[in-house]
Amino acid sequence: MRIIEKIWHSKPIASMPLWPFALIFWSLSIIRKNLLRASVKAETKVPVIIIGNISVGGTGKTPILLELAHYVISRGLKVGIVSRGYGGKKASYPVSVSADSEVAEVGDEALMLAKSINVPIVVDPDRRRGLRALVASNTIDVVLSDDGLQHYQLERALEIVVVDGARLFGNKLLLPAGPLRESVGRLNTVDFVLTNGTKDQLEIVKCEAKRFQYFNTNSFFSTSVTPLFFENLLSGDRRAFAGAPFKIGSELQVVSGIGNPQRFYSLLEGLPYGLKIFEFPDHHQFSLKDLKKAGVDFFQPIVMTDKDAVKCVNFAEKNFWSLVIKLELDPNFLSAFMKSLSKVIQ
Question: What is the pLDDT of residue 42?
């Protein structure tokens, strides 16, 4: 964890020198928000569903978007996905993403989605432009936006905020004094809030939101993650997560380049192995040289998330494995979501 993140998740007094800058950030964000909202134009008649967060770092929104996309498809609707393509760089945009796209061009999250679900996906730093391209080239009933909650120029029919149940809101301060892009009160203005964690963590999120106006307990739900199996990046072989998937006495070489790797580490801690952690920045573009320089033992199992696996598959060796998880959405949330969605689909 970076020093600034340790400050964010300490008592507020630890970031006191940054309070004036947080006030400036708040003032500028209010001005920006109002200006962008004033320029919103209806880009399409297809409803856009935002799945985003109010804090910096990973909250698990992309797996939730993926699971929600599968569910909407199961209800007979055609889904498209728009994303910024963070971590990728292309000479021109928008870019359609397929399972064969280059991760350096479209970003790790968009490529992971393309390898996991067969729907149209477009990346573009200008989400409005990406949305226009997505809808113009495909027959779509619903668009899911991976992040974009603060992209206020993008018209949205529904907003879903994902909260990391373990880290919550840190010291509850705005950037740069804290991890928040918007205040906790923003939760009470969106359609749904999903806490990625336990029921107890969900109750903590509710208690924090109750401090602000317009709180509605019926908008808050929790999600849970179940690890299923490890999949070999070279052979595609699978080993069940439960029990001892690798040789007893192994030391797992845990490679991560995600926003909040602690959730990943916590899952692995339940296995009967030692863990050696190799932590890289979020969206890091891995190379074999990176891993060798960091001291990864290539004779031990090297494990990572699906998001990181798409960046390592081109140079993977026989001991490279990704952890495949199953995210469970609350049936009550799914029912409420479909009820809301039915009201905005034309």
Answer: 65
Residue 61: per-residue pLDDT: 92
- The CB-based long-range contact list for 290-294 (8 Å cut-off, 24+ gap) reads 291/255
Dihedral sign, CA of 85, 88, 93, 94? negative
CATH-assigned architecture of domain 3-224+329-344:
3-Layer(aba) Sandwich (3.40)
Burial degree of 110 (CB within 10 A; 0-12, 13-18, 19+): buried
Q: Check the CA dihedral 150-139-346-331 and report its sign.
A: negative
Query: Between residues 268 and 38, which one has the greater pLDDT?
Result: 268
Q: CB 34: neighbour CB atoms within 10 A?
A: 10
Tokens at residue 309, please? 């696996």
User: For helices 61-74 and 108-116, what crossing angle results, to 10°?
Assistant: 30
User: How far, in Å, CA of 134 to CA of 28, rounded?
Assistant: 31
* Contact indicator for 286, 258 with CB cutoff of 8 Å: no
Identify the DSSP state of 9: T
Dig out the tokens for 100 from the structure: 């064969």
pTM of the model: 0.94
Task: Give CATH 3.40.50.300 domain extents, the chain.
Answer: 3-224+329-344
Whether pLDDT at 137 is above 90: yes
Distances (CA, A) of 84 to 52, 110, 131, 321: 12, 8, 11, 27
